[in-house]
Structures are given as structure tokens and as C-alpha cells.
């Protein structure tokens, strides 16, 4: 079956511009996650959705970052006024269920490599 | 504080050698979950294993085996008879029941298997 897909695979933008990154989770997965991975580092948690609502956005670095999942499936990560420090690979993952207590295995997409010039 | 430590940044082995990747974690939660993921050069994280804190039984899957020891807060990963296709970055991750679904990843170990 189809895995998690992310578009675009690469995005180059100029400092100060607005970007949107899209994630299409595995069909039927209710939970969706965004991570950011800088070179030589492990993924860092940004935000987690359970259905349409953001259940935990504690990892978003500042208010320039925002994510939505309006219909409980596809999610968009939005970055305003991009800075060079935002350059990284943005990973999306989904899991069958969410909720606390017994975290489900997360399945990751290929990522979007964002470069801010 | 770093919740997951992978002290080995890079490891090189010759094909057919065994190799162990170390993972040490830190948590105050009594219920937690540990994971290993493989990230090949293509970049996509591939799930390998999930263990919960109540199950210390070691696990073997083909050439892969995992040693979970709560006494030392370690969850080490061994590849037996390594192959070139095993070359990748391997990440250990922790998820705590108290914080829900947030995964804490280590910094990864880059494994190169030399033919």
C-alpha cells in the first residue's frame, strides 16, 4: 500500500518568503506528526495532530510556524518570513492511532528538503 | 537534557562482521517505548522495532537483534554478518506515555559496511 507522501521533495526559497509543505499520510491513519531534521541530527518533534486538531504543538519553534489538517487527512506545514536557520529536512509521519499511553509506531515520509537562501 | 544518547557517531565495519549500535535513554516515566529506525541514503526513515518498558525480552529478527536492559537504560542493536545494504544512519527513539506521542530521537549512528 501507499506510504506517507510529501511534496515538494525539494524547496528552495529566499529569506523572508512564505512556504507551504504538504504531507499525505497513510490512508486510515488518524495521527499525523511533523518533525524537522537538521544535518547530522535526529528528527526533532514539531507538532502532532489527532484527527483535525493539533494535540501537541509544543515543538513549533516560534509563531512563524503553523500547521493545519482541516479534514483529518492531508496536512500542511506553513512557514512565514523564512529565515536561513529554517533550512532543514521536514519530515512527516503518521500512525494508526494517537493518544497518550501507548504510542503507535510512526511511519515516515521521504521528507521535504527546504533551503532558504 | 538529551533523552536518547547514541554515543557512536560513525562506525565502519568490513562486510560479514558483526556490529553493535549503542543506545542509552533517560526517562522518569515507568511506561515508555523504544524504537529503532534506519535511514538509508534515500532519506526515508524505516521502522525496525518497537519495544515497551515492560518487555525486556531480547528480540531477534533475521540478522538483527536487540538487547533491552532497563538496569542500564540501554537498548542496543546488533547486526550479525553485516552486508553493504546495511549501510545507513540508524536512529534510536524514545516515547514516554506521560508526554504522549512525541518521539525523542538520538543523533544517530552512521554505519558504513565496506565490501
Structural notes for this entry:
- The complex is a heterodimer of chains A (117) and B (115).
- Chain A has strands at residues 5-7, 10-13, 19-24, 31-37, 44-50, 53-56, 65-68, 75-79, 88-95, 107-108, 112-116.
- In chain A, the strands form 2 sheets. In chain A, strands 2, 4, 5, 6, 9, 10 and 11 form a 7-stranded mixed sheet that branches.
- The radius of gyration of chain A is 13 Å and the shape is globular.
- Chain A is an all-beta fold and 117 residues long.
- Chain A is built from no helices and 11 strands.
- Chain B is mostly beta strands and 115 residues long.
- Chain B is 0% helix and 52% strand.
- Chain B has strands spanning 4-5, 10-14, 19-21, 24-25, 32-39, 46-52, 59-61, 64-69, 74-79, 88-96, 103-105, 109-114.
- Chain B is built from no helices and 12 strands.
- Chain B starts with a strand and ends with a strand.
- Chain A binds chain B through residues 31, 33, 35, 40-45, 48, 55-56, 58-59, 89, 91, 93, 95, 98-111, and chain B through 4, 31, 33, 35, 37, 42-47, 50, 52, 91, 93, 95, 97-108.
Amino acid at each position: 500500500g501507499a506510504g506517507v507522501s510529501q511534496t515538494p521533495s525539494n524547496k528552495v526559497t529566499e529569506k523572508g518568503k512564505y512556504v507551504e509543505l504538504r504531507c499525505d499520510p497513510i490512508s486510515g491513519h488518524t495521527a499525523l506528526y511533523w518533525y524537522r531534521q537538521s544535518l547530522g541530527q535526529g528528527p526533532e518533534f514539531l507538532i502532532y495532530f489527532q484527527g483535525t486538531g493539533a494535540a501537541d504543538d509544543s515543538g513549533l519553534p516560534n509563531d512563524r510556524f503553523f500547521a493545519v489538517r482541516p479534514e483529518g487527512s492531508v496536512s500542511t506545514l506553513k512557514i512565514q518570513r523564512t529565515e536561513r536557520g529554517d533550512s532543514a529536512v521536514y519530515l512527516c509521519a503518521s500512525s494508526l492511532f494517537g493518544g497518550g499511553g501507548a504510542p503507535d509506531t510512526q511511519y515516515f515520509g521521504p521528507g521535504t528538503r527546504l533551503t532558504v537562501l | 537534557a538529551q533523552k536518547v544518547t547514541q554515543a557512536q557517531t560513525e562506525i565502519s565495519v568490513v562486510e560479514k562482521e558483526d556490529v553493535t549500535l549503542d543506545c542509552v535513554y533517560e526517562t522518569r516515566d515507568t511506561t515508555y517505548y523504544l524504537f529503532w529506525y534506519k535511514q538509508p541514503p534515500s532519506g526515508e526513515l524505516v521502522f525496525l522495532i518497537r519495544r515497551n518498558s515492560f518487555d525486556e525480552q531480547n528480540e531477534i529478527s533475521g540478522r538483527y537483534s536487540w538487547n533491552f536492559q532497563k538496569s542500564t537504560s540501554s537498548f542496543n542493536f546488533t547486526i550479525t554478518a553485516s552486508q553493504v545494504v546495511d549501510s545507513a544512519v540508524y536512529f534510536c527513539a524514545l516515547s514516554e506515555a506521560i508526554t504522549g506521542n512525541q518521539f525523542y530521537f538520538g543523533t544517530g549512528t552512521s554505519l558504513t559496511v565496506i565490501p
